[in-house]
Amino acid sequence: MKPPLLLIGQGSNDDADSAEFGRFVHRLRCRLDQRAADVSGGYLERATPRLSESVASLVARGHHRLVALPLSLSRLDTESHPAMARVQERHPTLLCDYGRPLGPDPRVLALLAERLNDAATEMPREMTRLRPLELVGARPRLRAVDSMAAEPPPVHVEPGETAVVLVGEGSTDPAANAEIHRVSRLFWETHAYDFMTVETAFVSVTPPGVPGGLERCRRLGAKRVIVVPYLLFAGGMLERVWAQALAYGAGHPDLDIRCAEVIGDCETLADVVIDRYEEALQPVP
Question: Which end of the chain is more exposed for a tag (fewer CB within 10 A), N or C?
Answer without folding.
Answer: C
